[in-house]
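QUALITY CONTROL LOG
STEP: pairwise intake check
CHECKER ROLE: data steward
CRITERIA: each record must contain a sequence immediately followed by its structure tokens, with no blank fields

ENTRY 1 OF 2
RESULT FIELD BELOW
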Amino acid sequence: KQAEKAVHQKKEQSKTKCRKARRRHVNLVAEFNRRQRKNIWLETHIWHAKRFHMVKKWGYCLGNSPTEKSYRASYRAMTKHCLLQDLSYYCCLELTGKENELLKQLARICSIDAGITFQEACCLSGRFEGSLNLYRADRYPEDMLGPVTFIWKPRDGSEHRQLWIWVHPALKQDILRELKAIFQCSEPEEICITEPVTRSLQEENQMEVVLSSGKKRKKEDKEGEKAVPVKKIIGDGTRDPFQSYSWMSQMTGIAISDRSMEILRYRLIGPLSHSVLTETLKAASVQTV
């Protein structure tokens, strides 16, 4: 009886996969998705994770400080070469609508006494990026929300304009709530509940081949049943994937969209930054239909 009891109490040994199986693309994506369920990774996460001490802030996993004991490499890059920073964790709020209506309502959350506004001529044309401090509607100089940067889409001859406002993830919810209030955007533009994960076509084909053969590489879960195919996480650290990400105002005609993690943002610092951009970016040939 004691022997039978010991056999029943013995836990099943975990089946650890060999390194070759762990390094397969399908298994890597599944493991990476599992590790970023709570904190989203940036596009450059793998590169930073090998060279930086990572911290979890604002729903993201960010590189805090380099593992090197010397900071001379970064200082030398800033002063003599080029240093790149990944700022993709900054949240992008997109506003679309008539220019007059946009400027009329945006003037309520900023003041010319504090510096430039959204009506600045050089910024309004779309040639330059501007920065300012936002306040609660009609509350300047009290109740400051925080600093933001913005850029207008260049004019195309229409009164319909497009504006991108970049905010820190810690300030996103307050600023988004204030923008929806001044533009009276209470209803979502489209009720689109996106699944938090989607499967790529290539990975789906791989799973079909595996399941059709039924001999090897058959993915099974702990219960021995067919496992869920590998999927890719969608969303960002500041937004629930099951919440709406676009709002429309029926009265003003202004649409607000949350473009966080949809537009990557990098910052180049150093005297050779312009040379790096010149060598990296190539002008596309304009084709007229």
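ENTRY 2 OF 2
RESULT FIELD BELOW
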Amino acid sequence: LFLTEMPEVLSIFPSRTLELQTTRSWDFLGLPRTPQAALPGNAIPTGSSDVIIGILDTAGIWPESKSFDDTGMAPVPARWNGACENAPGTNASVVVHCNKKIIGAKYYRAGLSPNASIAYSNPRDFAGHGTGVSAIAAGMPVKNVSMEAGLAQGDARGGFPAARIAMYKVCWGFQCYDIDIVAALDDAINDGVDIISLSLGDDPVVYSVDSIAIGAYHAIERGIVVSCACGNSGRVPGSVTNVAPWIFTVGASSIDRKVTP
């Protein structure tokens, strides 16, 4: 019996390899700092902190970052089904521990060669992209941060600082495999996230072989909002990706300041 003849199999298509895409932004957009932007140490409204953002990204997450401080947060919502997963024997110094802010962390490497050399075989960040997009979405306010040499100094915060974060590490060496993306989307849906965020993609393809479009459709059916980046190719004609009409596709914008040396 072929797989395609099994009643539970809807479709089969080759796994593609996708690529990654992605302090002032939220103020520039006019998003309020309160009540959801309470600083660590202050009480955060319980209702606001019930929102769970599932982030599918590359390097995973660096849980020790101040952006993920859980001080003052209410207990993790009882409806949450996710977990923190680390491979057996992972060095204690790089184990990813969850708290009331990072409530889930999983990793997927079915698309990766078994002999591939990788930095961390667990949900820990190795390049910064996953930590960055997590902090942009839901990072706690952190005072007096800057780029190198003190450039762009100010307070950093996420768009919804009271939200919980669940990281699904689906990329290795800045390459993301369909087979892992689909598995992570299934897990995120079943774990109980409210929002799924993906800053990755490739050239548009028909929806029937687009792992993100397919997974996002299943998420939407369960009432989960899916937000994706539209690409890194600028104003090149036809370069926008993640174009399924049931996805919020987000592009970059200008901003009201510039960084000078």
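INTAKE CHECK: passed for both entries
DESCRIPTIVE NOTE, ENTRY 2: The helical segments are 25-29, 129-138, 178-191, 211-221.
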